[in-house]
Specification:
The protein is built from eleven helices and eight strands. With about 260 residues, it is of the alpha/beta class. It has two domains: about 230 residues, Phosphoenolpyruvate-binding domains (TIM Barrel, Alpha-Beta Barrel); about 30 residues. Helix 5 links the parallel strand 3 and strand 4. It is globular. Bound molecules: 3-methyl-2-oxobutanoic acid. 3-methyl-2-oxobutanoic acid binds next to loops.
Length: about 260
């Protein structure tokens, strides 16, 4: 497989080929995703929850994003590497947003993802004018969790669906190369997907999006306490890990590890 670029992602929409995306936060998993042939690796600010143990993504800092983007970039040679801009790294001013996006690119990202619609459209224009590709993120945007009052499906009323359709157009006009749609009813996601020339990447947004993304730890079954309907577990790594670690403990305690085969 050759290197995935922004152009490849846009072409996939016109060829009606599904786009595959997953998050990663470290070198080891990013090299697995890359070898498996994933199109996009997102260094998501979900790392605040699944790696750092916070209850929301709000405490994630630029320092966190830089460290993890650098690590993921070491394992991703073919996939397109997108890094999330963390809370307060782009909301305070356009110049801060441009500087922080540039820093993520200097540390291995090939594009950045920002949450929001109308409120970020001007910044998206400036970023793309600077040569920084931008992925949008609409619907349930976790950095606004307190404004939403919880992790809820968005766009359920006619008015809120209309706003989503308008904001998606604004992001496309501003220069986004794709938009993540999170927790949006599947019929609205289909309407959004048909209304745009750029691809939509869904998470909890149904089958009609141009691509799909999941948080890797949900996909691999490492987050047992998080069970929303859309987060299908493709493996149960928590169970496998528990078994392996328990066996290790038992073998050390019974002096059967290390045996001769594992000793010098
Ligand atoms: O941070 C993240 O993992 C994300 C995905 C859920 C799209 O933004």
């Amino acid at each position: 497989m050759s290197k995935i670029t922004i152009k490849t992602i846009l072409e996939k929409k016109s060829k009606n080929e599904k786009i595959t995306a997953l998050t990663a936060y470290d070198y080891s998993f990013s090299s697995i995703l890359d070898e498996a042939g994933i199109d996009i690796i997102l260094v998501g600010d979900s790392l605040g929850m699944v790696v750092l143990g916070h209850s929301t993504t709000l405490p994630v800092t630029m320092e966190d994003m830089i460290r993890h983007t650098r690590a993921v970039s070491k394992g991703a040679s073919k996939a397109l590497l997108v890094a999330d801009m963390p809370f307060l790294s782009y909301q305070t001013s356009e110049s801060e947003g441009i500087k922080n996006a540039g820093i993520l690119l200097q540390n291995g990202a090939e594009a950045v993802k920002l949450e929001g619609g109308r409120s970020i459209a001007q910044l998206v224009k400036k970023l793309t004018a600077c040569g920084i590709p931008v992925m949008g993120h609409l619907g349930l945007t976790p950095q606004s969790i307190h404004a939403f009052g919880g992790y809820k499906v968005q766009g359920k009323t006619e008015k809120s669906a209309e706003i989503l359709l308008e904001e998606a157009q604004l992001l496309q006009e501003a220069g986004c190369f794709s938009i993540v749609l999170e927790c949006v009813p599947k019929n609205l996601a289909e309407q959004l997907t048909k209304s745009l020339d750029i691809p939509t990447i869904g998470i909890g947004a149904g089958i009609k999006c141009d691509g799909q993304i999941l948080v890797l730890y949900d996909c691999l079954g490492l987050t047992p306490e998080f069970n929303p309907r859309f987060a299908k577990k493709f493996a149960d790594l928590r169970e496998i890990s528990l078994k392996a670690v328990s066996q290790y403990i038992q073998e050390v305690k019974s002096s059967s590890f290390p045996d001769d085969a594992h000793s010098f």
